[in-house]
Design brief:
mainly alpha, 2 domains
Length: 115
């Protein structure tokens, strides 16, 4: 996504990332009707509000094991808010952390013994 955004030509006439066709702000109602709904239909997805993508991204990031701190930074929120909203999905986080620390400890011990 960042590569796609970086490839957009620099706009000198507006500070908006996605201005309306004639400049200025997009009309959200028109954008949903003309762009969002057809895109969902083309993808074979049921209607959902654009903000639902944020929830989907955060949920998928948690499932992928991305650290909560990084998810918070990417989504522009706090670790506390991620924990409040998605804490039920983080139940195995302690198990994953323990396994990572055990693996690290094993590598460190093996490297020390190899010296």
């Amino acid at each position: 996504m960042l590569d796609a955004l970086d490839s957009l030509p620099q706009r000198l006439d507006t500070p908006l990332l996605f201005p309306a066709g004639r400049g200025g702000h997009l009309n959200l109602h028109n954008w949903r009707r003309d762009e969002w709904k057809p895109a969902l239909q083309a993808a074979g997805l049921a209607y959902r509000r654009p903000y639902a993508l944020r929830h989907t991204f955060i949920s998928e990031a948690i499932a992928a094991g991305i650290p909560t701190f990084e998810i918070a930074r990417m989504s522009g929120t706090s670790v506390l808010q991620i924990d409040k909203t998605y804490g039920h999905m983080l139940r195995d986080a302690a198990t994953r952390a323990t396994a990572a620390l055990d693996a690290f400890d094993s590598r460190t011990t093996e490297e020390t013994l190899a010296r």
